[in-house]
Specification:
The chain has 545 residues and is mainly alpha-helical. The protein has five domains: 2-36; 40-168, no CATH class; 171-267, no CATH class; 275-439, no CATH class; 443-541, no CATH class. It has 26 helices and five strands. The protein has a five-stranded mixed sheet with strand order 2-1-3-5-4, with helices on both faces. α10 (194-208) packs antiparallel against α11. It starts with a helix and ends with a strand. The chain crosses the membrane at residues 37-59, 110-133, 145-165, 171-189, 194-210, 216-231, 243-260, 301-327, 339-367, 379-398, 405-423.
Length: 545
């Protein structure tokens, strides 16, 4: 019996020695990582990941898979190359800043047609986002390793890597969101430093001109300023000055956009009232009974929760919930931390609110009814939650045990295995290649690419009948609704400007020309029908000798 206990103690001692060695090895590894982590290393890794992923998606012809991706490219292109070039080509629906950032690059036809102009803008946004996600995490944890892990999880997320390769605007928003959030958090903890407040307001201004999510960001930052000063002796005097200073710059973007729509389009709320607005699109879904979260808060919460989970990665997201619980437990009595979380969770609040109000719609597999025509649409909205998810996931490393490090590393590896074997979709790519967001490629597009020779082309670009970037048509040869004079006169005299007319059943050109007998007769007088399909017709002006 004594021998048995001796062997048991010996085995236990060996286990303790092994664990001690492992702990020392882990500690040594952590110290090595700490010494080598710098903002420079974050930038270098981000650049490498950006170039590799963009190259991969470029050679797989997946940079301009989204219909919206081409629209963003075309809006920017028309500013410099159009029958009527100028800033007015920005329009009044999508916010202008991402398109203005594209302008220097779409000037070059190769970058425009390939979509690489958008890859440059989104790629730079990705790099800046990576740096400031690291800085936010470091400010909250004061730990380089935890901050580096947060960066790695963000920068290696396949949905982030795909979108940063495209002309979509999500990475631009994430960049300005993280920039504004970082400086606003610095202000929360040092409210006497108004420089932080001014910088936060400036980047909030940029966010508000990037996507409408940015409007909620500056609104909640303004609310946080009020809450920050509640209970202080000079509450009103201090709060009033800081709130005015912040709002003057942060809300300027909102006011400028409303003024722009009024001056250019005659309606200050054109972005929500026009036939091209998201609100109008959602009304069509509502009529069809396919707006599941409208005035249903539980559905709105459920849909965006699942969408966030699908973008972040199933295992990463669920683990981050544990991280949130631990984070709240550790900072339970720290009032300012609740303001930090409020700002970080603004994307969740915004998307749930817009789903509930019927201003947006998300279709995602497994929870969208099979009776719906589509079950995959707008799932990219969930990428906005990835930054806070990575922060909360990495926060668990504050427990500093070998077991914690091992479990989190295992979860990270397993999540990537799920992507690799196809169990977890890269859902943003799936939406762009087989969801409703996919850019349709009709046979008419291939025909036009092979047969277009020269001349102006009248087309309803909103209907996306053919892809302009994939054809040989120069943008300055396109007549669309934004070329008002050419567009309106062509509906009375189709032959006046256009050499080619492309129409799709029930689009604006079809209704305005083909659908009116007296104009249709004029059409056939001056044009030959050169392409026919059940839904698309192409006409070419009769050549005169």
């Amino acid at each position: 019996m004594g021998c048995y206990f001796y062997l048991l103690k010996l085995h236990h001692a060996k286990m303790e020695i092994n664990l001690s060695i492992k702990a020392k090895s882990l500690k040594g590894l952590i110290e090595t990582v700490k010494k080598n982590i710098s903002l420079r290393s974050i930038v270098i890794i981000s650049i490498v990941l950006s170039i590799i992923s963009t190259t991969y998606f470029f050679f797989n012809d997946q940079i301009v898979t989204y219909g919206d991706a081409e629209s963003h490219l075309n809006i920017a292109k028309r500013v410099v190359h159009s029958i009527t070039p100028g800033v007015a080509q920005i329009g009044g629906i999508w916010l202008p800043l991402p398109h203005m950032m594209l302008v220097p690059f779409v000037y070059f036809d190769f970058l425009w047609r390939t979509g690489l102009a958008g890859s440059i803008v989104s790629g730079v946004s990705f790099i800046v986002s990576s740096v400031f996600l690291y800085r936010i995490t470091y400010f909250l944890t004061k730990d380089k390793v935890i901050s580096f892990v947060s960066f790695i999880i963000f920068a290696s997320n396949p949905n982030i890597l795909y979108l940063q390769s495209t002309p979509m605007t999500e990475l631009v928003l994430i960049m300005f969101f993280l920039l504004s959030t970082y400086y606003f958090i610095r202000f929360i903890y040092n409210s006497e430093n108004i420089i932080y407040l001014i910088i936060a307001a400036f980047f909030g201004f940029c966010a508000s001109l990037s996507r409408y999510d940015g409007w909620f960001l500056v609104l909640f930052e303004a609310m946080a300023i009020v809450v920050l000063y509640i209970g202080k002796k000079k509450f009103w005097r201090e709060m009033e000055g800081k709130l005015f200073l912040f709002s003057t710059l942060a809300f300027l973007g909102v006011l400028l956009w409303i003024l722009w729509d009024y001056l250019i389009l005659g309606d200050p709320f054109y972005f929500t009232n026009s036939q091209f607005s998201a609100k109008t699109q959602q009304q069509n879904w509502y009529i069809r009974g396919e707006l599941p979260s409208y005035h249903n808060i539980f559905s709105a919460l459920y849909y965006y929760f699942v969408t966030s989970l699908s973008n972040s990665g199933f295992l990463i997201f669920l683990t981050s919930i544990v991280g949130l619980i631990i984070f709240l437990k550790d900072h339970f009595k720290e009032q300012k931390i609740y303001l930090v979380l409020l700002i970080l969770f603004v994307p969740f609040i915004f998307n749930v609110a817009t789903l509930f109000l019927g201003q947006s719609v998300i279709f995602i597999p497994h929870i969208t009814p099979n009776t719906f025509e589509w079950t995959l649409f707008n799932v990219r909205y969930g990428v906005m939650m990835i930054p806070v998810v990575t922060i909360l996931f990495s926060y668990l490393l504050t427990r500093r045990s070998v077991t914690t490090y091992f479990v989190l590393a295992l979860i990270f590896v397993l999540q990537f295995m799920l992507y690799f074997v196809g169990y977890s979709d890269v859902i943003t790519l799936a939406d762009g290649t087989r969801g409703l967001s996919k850019a349709e490629r009709h046979d008419a597009e291939y025909w036009l690419k092979d047969n277009y020779d020269d001349g102006l082309v009248l087309i309803d670009d909103y209907a996306r009948t053919v892809s302009i970037v994939r054809t040989k048509i120069p943008m300055q040869n396109i007549i669309y609704i934004g070329n008002r004079k050419y567009w309106e006169e062509s509906f009375n005299q189709p032959e006046k400007y256009a050499t080619w007319i492309v129409m799709q059943r029930d689009d604006a050109v079809w209704q305005g020309i083909y659908g009116k007998p007296h104009i249709q007769s004029r059409l056939f007088k001056y044009f030959n029908k050169v392409y026919t399909s059940p839904d698309i017709l192409i006409f070419r002006k009769i050549r005169t000798t």
